[in-house]
What does this fold into?
Amino acid sequence: MTIHPRLEETAVRARLARRYRRERRFRWYCRAAVAVALLSLVVLFGDILRKGWGAFFAAEVRIEVHFDPAVIDPAGSRDPAVLSRADYAALWRQPLLARFPGAADDRATRRELLSLVSDGATYELRNKVLDDPSLIGSTRPVWVSADDEVNLLLKGQVDRDAAGGGQRLSDRQVAWIDELRAGGDLKMGLNVPFFVNGDSREPELAGILGAAIGSFYTMVITLVLCFPLGVATAVYLEEFAPQNRWTDLIEVNINNLAAVPSIVFGLLGLAVFLNFFGLPRSAPLVGGLVLSLMTLPTIIISGRVAIKTVPSSIREAAYGLGATPLQVIQHHVLPLAMPGILTGTIIGMARALGETAPLLMIGMVAFIVDVPKGPLDAATALPVQVYLWADSPERAFVEKTSGAIIVLLGFLILMNGVAVWLRRRSERHA
Amino acid sequence: MRRGSIRLVQTLVLVAVVVLLAAVGHRLGLGRARALRRRGEKVHSLPGYYGFYVALWCAVPALLVLALWVALEGPLVQAVVVSSLPAEMQQLPADRLALLVNDVKNLAAGNVSSQAVDPTLSAAADHYRNLRRIGFASSAVAALALAVGGLLLAWRRVRPELPAIRKVESTVKVFLLAGSLVAIFTTVGIVLSLLFEALRFFQRVPLTEFLFGLRWSPQTALRADQVGSSGSFGAVPLFTGTLLISAIAMAVAVPVGLFSAIYMSEYATPRWRNLLKPLLEILAGIPTVVYGFFAALTVAPVLRGWGEAVGLDVASESALAAGAVMGIMIIPFVSSISDDVISAVPKGLREASYGLGATQSETIRRVVLPAALPGIVGGILLAVSRAIGETMIVVMAAGLAANLTANPLEAVTTVTVQIVTLLVGDQEFDSAKTLSAFALGLALFVITLVFNVVALQVVRRYREQYE
It folds into this structure.
């Protein structure tokens, strides 16, 4: 390679080397920035997964339960009202005490032993009997939920050696746990209560079903309201609206609404829907109303883009065959724009599903044990449940919170996946 | 079920009945038009449009009457009840009267308080309940009569020469217009509700104290004779706290986002770019409550540990933790818009620069970035408005006490945190404490609105420049 004679001058070469060094440094800044962003993503997901994976599993204790007719249903009536009132706690307490005869001596020791099993075991046994009354009279091994302190120990979240000093588990309890494990009577299983229960003060009983159903009703209301309205607005603005000040005003409005902080929509819901119209507090109906106002701009904006990309030749061909404006839209424009509109809708809905702040304003933060049965019942939503559990002082709730986050993120990934798939498909057809 | 819910269910059932009638009307109109056709008449439009014509005549007037009643019922019934109260009660000042009316409503709804009930009040409550029942019944009857009447009238009008398609289309067009007005109504609703409640707040607390006061402690006395906690509403510490956390967030998001955008648009191969862009946008799709949890339970303890290691006292709810995590969330807002804007800079500018012997980074720094600057600034302004309005991260990771400080290691509180703490939980709706949340909301709305309008304007003007 021949070098231009002037480049051999040392000053020029030195400057050039400096400039190239600077170029390399600049590239490294850029790469570092991307690395930082990706690293935060990985750390965030890794942290949540690491903390929350355990929430899907829970410790269970095997107890030989004798479904004693004398305790459950002395009269033998098999009446569900009688069955649900019986003292099921005795059914699991006695065999547990019998297994460790040394513990039955004084009250304090007994209480320590019994506290290894969750209070929910009573309800689990009751539900078993209510589902299948023929169990009464039989003796069979039953797996019941263990207490959350046992969970923490088995998952290694409590230091075993320190367990005796100042921790909530005593040395005796740790010894019992070891004995139960050695006998195969204590194992980790799928955490069923987490998926089928509403909220609870007891970490091992708290589940996400109530919040998930609340989210479901909220999302249904949001979709029912904002999809037709969003499509109508997009169609009007793209196909009918004259170019004048009013249309400009509507446009500016929509663009601004898309950037208004979500909590302001919550204030609107509180002032208008609750205080002015007197709609019920904490109801998914109001949550859906508020979230649909928030989601509407997203759907309108994506709907307009989708309608704009429909080639005008299609419109003109339809007009040429004598179609009316609405027929053109209904039969040609909307079907072609639908994948784009749906993509925008799903993305808007995904954002609404993760939204918390407006729901706090309209009171969907109450502690609600029952699973809501309709959009008028008091309910929470998945992200609100995350917020509530994150606030809870009990240590076991950290895992629950992360577990709920994993479920929430799972739904979001699913929705966004569908949106991406729809977009790909429509791109291939276009 | 609560009484409000019962009324709601009744209204919904009524709406369902009207819709059902409209469906019947659709079948009838359709049938009549088809019959005309079979008779060999030359019918103007397709039969389906006659069906819709009848259905619209059936449903629209009835639903309008219902909507009107729902909107007017409250104030109307209230006015009648107030006028029937004894004269000395009507002479009461406005706020006492409002309390009285509230008592009557509570009595009527069955939320009886434990105190002995004044017979005049309970009579008024009965009156109120009766009026509402009569009002609802009559509105229901009127709506159903209108639905049936409209149905019959329209059905008789179905004749071959009726241009049903044109009538249906013009009605649908009105619906479309009405739909697009919802966006306007939302904005008007936001502004009015915030303004209305904020004005009530400023009647109690002067505007100057709110804007320039240095102390924020919204505890007001529960009883008049209570001492000590008079409540002070100086919002300056909240504004500085918001500013501090937003500044930290931008200090993270702007460099990372901008350099990522440069990398994606200038250095990365198309394949990398197509992979990186959606990956970064995941950051914007994660719910903020997840970031809040991450900030409070992971980042804050780590920062505290680092602080202890070098002998610094870091608060467990430090502004730094909340701000840094918020910055991560905002990275895609900066990077996406910057990427679009940088990619839109014409190729000719770059090539001219290369032709003069500039290296790639020199071209980017001296040519591309200055050309893209307005768009980038617009994107950053949008990101700032997002940071100011962000709620969940700060609610979970920032402090509650209003602290006038610029030290990022201390706990500060923000406007959004205060709105949430003031309005979550039990509230009495007339106290200055509750109303102050709406004043804060108004301030938040105005500030973010200014940022948004300026940003959108800047971005739009920039786009026009290169199109």
Observations:
- The mean pLDDT of chain A is 86.
